[in-house]
Amino acid sequence: MHASAPAKIILFGEHAVVYEQPAIAVPVSSLRASVTVEPNPAGSSGLHIVASDLNQTLPYDLVSQSIDNALTLTVRLVLEHLGAEPPAVLLTVRSEIPVASGLGSGAAVSTALARAISAALGRSLDNPALNAIVYEVEKVHHGTPSGIDNTVIVYEQPIYFIRGKPIEPIAIGAPLSFVIADTGQGALTRIAVGAVRDLYQSEPERIGSVIRAIGAVSAQARSAIERGDAHELSALMCQNHAYLQMLTVSSPELDALVDAALSAGALGAKLSGGGRGGNMIALVTPETQAGVEAALRNAGAARVVSTIVQEEHHR
Ligand code: PMV
User: Fold this and answer.
1) Fewer Cβ neighbours under 10 Å: the N or C end of the chain?
2) Residue 232, Cβ neighbours under 10 Å: how many?
3) Residue 285: what are its φ and ψ, rounded to 5°?
4) How far is CA 118 from its chain centroid?
C-alpha cells in the first residue's frame, strides 16, 4: 500500500492571506512526499515509522510520543479521529520535497502519512477531515498558519483561498510554466509572519493598504489565470513582489533571483511563500524556460525546479 501528497507553491497573496485577503496556491505534483505501508518485520510488533530522509526512526508509542514531533502528532490525530488503535505495520516515509523552503514539505508528509494510516486500517479519511488534521499539525510548527498550505496539498488542485471561507478551485485557462528557484537560505515562515504583524501594528494605515492591494492583485490574478492571460499575470506577479518588498519579506538574495529571471526573459517573477529566504517563482514560456533556469543557477540558486500548472485532464 502506498499514499502520497504533492509539494505546493503560493502564486499570489502570501502574508496578506493571514489577514483574510485572498491568495492563490497550486500543487507541484511532480515533487511528492510518499508513505508505504508494509507488514512489520518478523519479531517486531506495534506501529513503526521510518523516515530516513528526515533522519527519524520512530517506534510509535501512544504513551510516549511527544506532540512536537509532527509525524507522531499526525498519527495520534488520525487514530483519535477514527477511534482506532495503532495498526501493527511498518510505515516508510520518503520525501522529494526540500524542507524549510516554502514548498510545503511538512504538510505533504503529514498528508501522506495520515492517508497511509487510514489505508492501513482499511478506513476512509475524507479530505475535509484530513485537512483539519494537517492544519492542527501545521500549527505546531507555524503558530497561526492561514491554512493555505494544507488545503492546496490535501485537495491537490489550484485554489483561491480566503482564510475561514470555503475553498474555491480555480480553472486554468491555459497551461502556465513556472521555474521555482531556492535561495538556499532557510527561513522560518513564523518569523516573517511575526515581522509583518509588528510592522502592521506600528503603521496600520500604510501596511493595511499594502495588504489590501495584495488582495486586489490576487483577485485580478484569478481572473487572468482563468482566462489564460499570461501577460497580465506576469505584470501582477511583479506588482505582488513589490508589495512584498514593502512588507519587508523579500531579501537581497530573493531580489537578485527575481532580477536574474526577468533579465533572462521570464514574463514575471516574485518571491513565493514566507520570504526572507526560501523560494522565488518565475513565469516562463517554453522558449525562455531553459535560459531562465540557467540564469537562476548562475545567480546563485541552490535548487531550480520547473512545473507546469494545467487542468487535471491535461496531466
Ligand atoms: O512559507 P510558506 O510557503 O509555508 O508560506 C506561508 C504563507 C504565509 O502567507 C506567509 C503564511 C500563512 O500562514 O499563510
Assistant:
1) C
2) 16
3) -110, 165
4) 23
CA–CA separation, 272 and 9 (whole Å): 7
40-54, 116-130, 178-192, 210-224: which has the minimum mean pLDDT? 40-54
Q: Does ligand 1 lie within 6 Å of residue 102's CB atom?
A: yes
The predicted pLDDT at position 67 comes to 47
Q: Ligand 1, closest atom to CA 14?
A: 9
Give pLDDT, residue 100: 73
Q: Pick the atom of ligand 1 nearest to 196's CA.
A: 10
Answer yes or no: 229 catalytic: no
- Give the Å distance between the CA of 73 and the centre of ligand 1: 21
Report the pLDDT averaged over residues 150-164: 96
Mean local confidence (pLDDT), 35-47: 82
Q: Is the distance from CB of 306 to CB of 180 less than 8 angstroms?
A: yes
Ligand 1 centroid to Cα of residue 274, in Å, is 5
Is residue 109 within 8 A of residue 33, CB to CB? The reply is yes
Which among 243, 305, 257 is positioned nearest to 15, based on CA atoms? 243
| Cα 13 to averaged position of ligand 1 atoms, centre (Å) | 9
Element (H, E) at 204: helix 204-227
Is the shortest distance between the CB of 162 and ligand 1 below 6 Å? no
**Is any ligand 1 atom within 6 A of the Cβ of residue 8?**
no
d(CA 206, CA 209): 5
Closest atom of ligand 1 to CA, residue 278: 1
Q: What is the CA radius of gyration of the chain?
A: 20
**Cβ of 125 less than 6 Å from ligand 1:** no
Coil/strand/helix, residue 30: strand
What's the gap in Å between 147 CA and the centre of ligand 1?
A: 8
**Nearest-10 Cα torsion for 287, 25, 155, 168:** -110
Question: Which cell goes with 119?
Answer: 489505508
Indicate whether 64 pLDDT > 80: no
